[in-house]
Amino acid sequence: MDQSKSILIYFLDYLHQKNIPLDKITIQKGLFFLKEMGLPIKFRFEPYIYGPFSIDLAMELDEMVFWDELAQSGSRYKIKKIDSTNFSEQIKEKINDKLNCLEKILDEKFDFNNLELASTVLFVIRSLEASNEKIDMESVVKEVRDWKGNKFGEDDIISVYKRLNELARKEKCLTIGSI
């Protein structure tokens, strides 16, 4: 089993243990954040309707349904029979640290809108970094608005931006360029 799938399985189990629904949005956004926090995840994420999306991850989930590791009903999954991950305690601790950071990024709210907004803000920051553009609150708000229209209020965008900035500076659980 490759490392990306092992991390995916670990994340699915984490969600299950926390009684967080295993839906497509939660899985997509969660793996996006874990990758952005430095975990070795091969899935490539692109801008999509509800924020970053990975077709590779969607295909991995489809394969897991096909092989009876997961059951799917609409946009939700249920764990059927998944091999346990063979991570060392050191690797488990690193992943758990990233999951704790994810909870802080989301302010412990794994709901659809919060996941969409937080992942979109981070994706915008990464896009600005990649194009060597200035990363500041104004440019992030503008880019999120260009992508999402008025779906999210400016105060909500700013709140997520500030939370990401604070976590990058104080907790060091993600790296953000020139914020």
Detail the topology: elements first, then pairings.
Layout: H1 3-17, H2 24-36, H3 55-66, E1 70-73, E2 76-79, H4 89-105, H5 112-130, H6 137-148, H7 154-171
Antiparallel strand pairs: 1-2
Adjacency order of strands in the biggest sheet = 1-2
Distance between the termini: 37 Å
Structural class: mainly alpha
Q: What is the H/E string?
A: HHHEEHHHH
Low-pLDDT stretches are: none
The main pleated sheet reads as: 2 strands, antiparallel
Global mean pLDDT? 91
Gross morphology is: globular
Helix content: 55-70%
Radius of gyration: 16 Å
Q: How much of the residues is beta strand, in percent?
A: under 5%
**How many helix segments?**
7
Secondary structure tally: strands: 2
As for the number of domains, it is 1
Descriptive notes:
This protein is mainly alpha-helical and 179 residues long. It has one domain (3-171). It contains seven helices and two strands. The chain has helices at residues 3-17, 24-36, 55-66, 89-105, 112-130, 137-148, 154-171, and strands at residues 70-73, 76-79. Strands 1-2 form a two-stranded antiparallel sheet. Strand 1 and strand 2 form a beta hairpin. Helix 2 runs parallel beside helix 5, helix 5 (112-130) packs across helix 6 (137-148) and helix 6 crosses helix 7 (154-171). The chain is globular, with a radius of gyration of 16 Å.
